[in-house]
Design brief:
Blueprint lengths: L11 H6 L2 H22 L5 H33 L1 H22 L5 H8 L2 H13 L5 H18 L14 H19 L8 H15 L1 H10 L7 H29 L1 H4 L5 H13 L6 H18 L15
Helix pairs in contact: 2-11, 2-13, 3-4, 3-9, 3-11, 4-8, 4-9, 5-8, 6-8, 7-14
Length: 318
């Protein structure tokens, strides 16, 4: 997804590519669905297999559209090959594999609670690597939206917190979020290449990084059964949380920076709750509306452009 060229005629694609709030909302929607599908896939598709096939299929989907840009940008990619490999390993290979592994061991409630801490890890990496501090508005917005997430997940009853038991899966999710926070911040240091070149390379390289672990998993765990459910699962994770979401997320971070993009993580449990209402027939209650209002308020406050630039370097030209 790239910015429109000067004097280029307006088009829906160009308009969408320059709407960071819309792009990041689409990302959150796709990733909320990924958490649900990943949980359903647990026990049917092993985590490394699911992650490897997800990114391999996503690479094949994006390659025809990205090929001409890859050829043009190859010199720039090669000159920054180290950072590109790190981005592929962290944001594509490691994060998603750990997420699917965690979903085999932890409750959905725990996962959503911990994922809501994503902005804190991004803020920490932004401070360590870029020297960027949260503004008061960003910190307040994250706090408000995190409160909204807790209201939704705990059904308005904070006493539910005392009944949560953390396990190995929760620790894996925390490690995954630390890694994804690093990816989010380092993506601002990517070479100035087209968005399609970036995702094609990271998808392909990320899948390739998983091959040694995949071989170990195939030897130690049962192979995936090829049936309709598993194929639909692979189709979903390859198209929506991979191809669509990463194009939107990377472009959104380019436009407004990692810190201002981070609060959109809190939309994931909001969308997850909405999906439960629509697809599982759950009935909306007062705490849903209160939580939604808090989350949206927090995202709005935290993602507003600060008076002085502190959300990272200017967007790369794509």
């Amino acid at each position: 997804m790239s910015a429109s060229e000067p004097n280029a005629p307006a088009s829906p694609a160009n308009w969408i590519a320059n709407q960071p709030y819309l792009l990041l909302s689409i990302t959150a929607l796709c990733w909320a669905g990924n958490a649900i599908v990943g949980r359903l896939a647990a026990g049917h598709i092993a985590p490394v297999t699911l992650s490897f096939l997800r990114w391999s299929f996503a690479f094949l989907i994006i390659l025809p559209f990205a090929w001409k840009h890859l050829v043009r940008d190859w010199a720039a990619i090669r000159s920054r090959l180290g950072i590109m490999i790190v981005l592929s390993l962290t944001g594509v290979g490691a994060f998603n594999t750990l997420q699917y592994w965690a979903l085999e061991h932890t409750q959905a409630l725990n996962t959503l609670l911990l994922q809501s801490a994503g902005p804190l890890f991004i803020a920490s990496w932004s401070l360590v690597l870029l020297g960027i501090r949260l503004t008061v508005a960003q910190a307040a917005g994250i706090a408000v939206s995190l409160t909204g997430v807790l209201v939704i997940l705990l059904h308005g009853d904070l006493t539910t917190l005392k009944n949560i038991e953390f396990n190995r899966g929760d620790l894996i999710i925390v490690v995954a979020l630390v890694i994804f926070g690093l990816y989010s911040v380092l993506s601002l240091k990517r070479p100035a290449i087209h968005g399609l070149s970036f995702v094609a390379f990271t998808f392909g390289a990320g899948a390739a990084c998983l091959i040694p672990v995949l071989i170990w998993e195939l030897v130690s765990r049962p192979a995936m059964v090829i049936d309709r459910t598993n194929l639909l699962t692979l189709f979903y994770v390859a198209v929506f949380p991979s191809t669509v979401a990463y194009l939107c997320f990377n472009r959104g971070v380019q436009l407004i920076g990692a810190n201002r993009a981070a609060p959109f993580f809190h939309l994931m449990p909001v969308f997850g709750t909405a999906m439960s209402i629509v697809f599982l027939g759950e009935h909306p209650q007062a705490f849903h509306f209160i939580g939604f209002a808090l989350v949206l308020t927090g995202v709005f406050v935290a993602s507003r452009k600060p008076q002085t630039p502190n959300s990272g370097p200017p967007p790369a030209v794509t």
